[in-house]
Amino acid sequence: MTDMKKQNGAVLLTGGAGYIGTHTTVALLEAGFDVIVADNFSNSCPEAINRVEQITGKKIKLYEVDVADQKQLVQIFAENKITGVIHFAGFKAVGESVKLPIKYYRNNLDTTLTLLECMARFGVKNLVFSSSATVYGDENPSPCVETMRTGKCANPYGMTKAFIEQILVDVAAAHKEMSIVLLRYFNPVGAHPSGLIGENPGGIPNNLMPYVSQVAVGKRDKLTIFGNDYNTPDGTCQRDFIHIMDLAQAHVKAIEFVEKNCGLDVFNIGTGEPYSVLDLVQTFEKVNGLKIPYEFGARREGDLPVVWADVSKAARVLGWKAELNLEDMCRDSWNWQKKNPHGINSSRN
Ligand code: NAD
Ligand code: UDP
């Protein structure tokens, strides 16, 4: 099985040095795939790839390129036999996207369009795209189902995902030989159990788990919980947190799926279980034997009270479901944070 996959060529991971990309690289290598990473390190660093090599004992072919740069991307396709692509490369900070929308539209759309042109030129037909639960917007009640109408997003980051989804729908309709999967991630958290790779945000984290972890390690004084007057069981927002190791496995299933099918398919990737912000904080405290100082603050603009996934389609069609729980997520996040108190790219911290 392994050898056959290797003979068939490699999977290209754009943005493969990032949080989800590194964990997916580990999962793909362990499943017997060859992996090539293309990343410009705008939000990551080469050390992340060294860590993946340390975990897997395998060498990774790494290209430091801007995926929006056609010349550079063409070179990768010309030098390698690529059978499929997982497209992670893009910017993802919601708040920054509101302030710098052009930067977000430029990078997220350009990387995708350049990639699609290259894939067409080299006859590569299999693509998995990193989309987000954000495409469900504020009009759809949870649990979110793949058939719901999407595209009314609250910020430019979300709109880049909605636009790219539409582009991919059009490409799949026009090019029947293409096989495309859109994975709509819910809230990825956690880290590889080795503590060698994990989420590595520069500056003040926007997301909940990295913020909690940085409070735990003493980098931030306390957590502010944005709102405790929502219409939820404990008044704080609920999300569908998913362990990064489970998310990585979903990519293995997705790349196997695109290799066997044609057309376009969409899958929610979550656990299908909502937990509140307070649930996460209290679980983090319990499993790690720590206290997380927190206060309640005002609601954060644009936050939805409750977001969680219907994950039945991924189970039915991909044969994938999440195995790890909130305790695993909190334990592995803390293990990563305490082993890497300043992340792994100290120049950005
Ligand atoms: P990340 O920032 O850790 O990884 C993205 C990687 O892409 C980084 O290594 C960055 O250096 C690289 N990159 C960005 N622009 C590039 C370019 N022009 N050329 C080459 N490399 C480039 O983010 P992540 O959390 O791993 O997310 C991966 C993908 O999943 C993104 O598209 C993100 O929008 C999407 N997503 C993430 C989440 C989440 O909560 N982490 C949720 C939903 C969707
Ligand atoms: N959150 C919070 N304090 C923080 C960061 C996040 O209370 O410092 C809350 C946020 O309001 C939301 C939940 O945690 O209800 C998840 O936020 P995150 O930004 O991680 O994910 P998203 O909003 O994209 O689902």
Features:
alpha/beta, 12 helices, two-stranded parallel ribbon, binds nicotinamide-adenine-dinucleotide, 349 residues, binds uridine-5'-diphosphate, single chain, globular
Describe this structure in words.
The chain is α/β, with parallel strands linked by helices and 349 residues long. Helices cover 42% and strands 17% of the residues. It has 12 helices and 13 strands. It has helices at residues 2-8, 19-30, 46-56, 70-79, 94-99, 101-121, 156-174, 208-216, 244-260, 277-288, 312-318, 326-339; strands at 10-14, 34-39, 61-64, 82-87, 126-132, 179-185, 187-189, 223-226, 238-239, 241-243, 263-269, 275-276, 294-297. The strands form 4 sheets. A 7-stranded parallel beta sheet has the order 3-2-1-4-5-6-11, with helices on both faces. A two-stranded parallel sheet has the order 7-10. A two-stranded parallel ribbon has the order 8-13. β1 (10-14), α2 and β2 (34-39) form a beta-alpha-beta unit. α2 (19-30) runs parallel beside α3 (46-56), α4 (70-79) packs parallel to α6 (101-121) and α6 (101-121) runs parallel beside α7. The termini are far apart. It binds nicotinamide-adenine-dinucleotide and uridine-5'-diphosphate.
What's the short story on this structure?
The chain is of the alpha/beta class. It has helices at residues 2-8, 19-30, 46-56, 70-79, 94-99, 101-121, 156-174, 208-216, 244-260, 277-288, 312-318, 326-339; strands at 10-14, 34-39, 61-64, 82-87, 126-132, 179-185, 187-189, 223-226, 238-239, 241-243, 263-269, 275-276, 294-297.
